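[job 0412] stage=fold_complex status=start
inputs:
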Amino acid sequence: MTKRFSFSQLVLLVVALALAVVWLAPIAWAIATSLKPETETTKVPLQWFGSEITLDSYRLVLDTGGIVKWAINSTVTTVIVTFLTVLFSAMAAYGFARTQFRGQRALLALILAGIMVPPHVLIAPLFAEMVALGLVDTWWAIILPQVAAPLIVYVLFKFFQDVPPELEQAAFVDGAGRWRVFFTIVLPLSRPVLAAVSIFTFITTWNNFLWPFLVSTDPNTMTLPVGLANVVQGTFGLRYAQIMASVVLAGLPLLVVFVLFQRQIVRGVAHTGLAGQ
Amino acid sequence: MTSTTVAPPATAAPVAQEKVRRGWTQHGLLFVAPFLLIYLAFLVWPTVLGFRMSLSSVNIAGGNNHLVGFANYAEAFADPRMWRSLWNTLVFTVLSTVPLVLLGLGFALLVHHLRFVQWLWRLSFFGPFLLPSAVVSLLWLQMIYPPDYGLINGTLGTKTLWLADPSVAMWSMVLTTVWWTVGFNFLLYLAALQSIPQHLYEAAAIDGASAWDKLRSITLPLLGRTTALIVVLQLLASLKVFDQIYLMTAGGPQDSTRPIIEYAYDVGFTGYRTGYASAVSYILFVLIVIVSLAQLRLFRKRAEVSS
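[job 0412] stage=fold_complex status=done
writing structure:
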């Protein structure tokens, strides 16, 4: 463990510390501002600490703002999107990798082509569709389009292709059906890749803005990013300490989760970003 | 281009035995069905519908839905605001991709070679990526960029109008975006660095190679494929920029930051010209498809190498 503490390590350490300070400064500034009395937030010259440290802003934001409701909406929709995306994508990927059916090649090609379709350019037709289906201002409008994620199918498809068929053969011989094999052998075996894909889906869904912003106009169905966008547009006036308290409350959950599950998150993002390498 | 990536027949043999035993042909389709239904309804159909809308005069309420052929496209190509927003998008893409790739690599090299408190560096450089765009936008808009009490001017003693000066605003958007998203590329590079076999460096060390030699002739060449992938992913992400610009400058000042997705949103959702907005979107769509084709080529090469 105690390796040599060489001079070059010292130099790297100093450089890394300096960069980390710069990179963390905006977050630290948000936290510092949120702890100041409201009247001292815009003082010039800058002061990192006010005359006292107070949690008043947090109390006010939690009492009056919709932030708790938005956080619940975000949590519920994100969990449902992640669950459905991973379940349906895994089933589809397994269907393509391990079974054969009529039209399989054409369907797989259709799904791979979908990787190129950016959801951002589909906002007008998707919105028209949601209006026609009467789903605007419901959770389903936020959830359903995000489940149609062809990249996830591709990542899992690549993974299932590499699972040795022998692992399934024994179960087939014992009389297990396709579905049993899928749920009791293949899925448990794929836990690392499923975790990676889940983490990736969770982060992107939790932070998605444009689509939920378009389909939730009712503060009761808004997700956290959309609710905060309303804050940007002025509901809080110029109460900076409260705005920064909202920023901290909205930003903290994923940062805390990151500190706790670092290893898995790093692997999940890297794995999915590199598309199932 | 996709047909070559379709399932190789490698798995066909064990499956064929089963085919005889049970009527599983339907099984395969049943596995695919749930995803396929959602995919057809919420990706394929909107893609088709969007193209149809781009050829029509439809408004957001669904009224006035007449086919007008390519009139929307002709209008878009003659529309200076469309060109301005397309230009802004391309400028943002180039300005953001260069530092996002280089800094991502720099941070990864630094952290990879450091032996201390790995979690702290990962949290520092990757943490901002975990913040929602609305959080990032609020923070920078309200507490970092304001001219007098903002963190940057306040610390450096400058008087820059970060968001109000048309010649500076796009750079401010790039700066915020780099801070916010570089962590993703940093992680991809870090993962790539960790997968380089250690014995290559040991062999080089025996040959008396310096740290610089190792970087130049082992590390960087082996990161080539990762770099190509990161560049393409970054181009795709930057072409789709919307959130932080919409939330911080709303496209201003004087249209200097308005990206094309925001222009499509403006004409479609506040100007109610949904048909025209779809045509603008599909112009961006073509650009993104071109970059995505490069991405698919990379994925395929990767798959070939790994198999």
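[job 0412] summary: The domain at 74-306 of chain B is CATH 1.10.3720.10 (MetI-like fold).
[job 0412] exit 0
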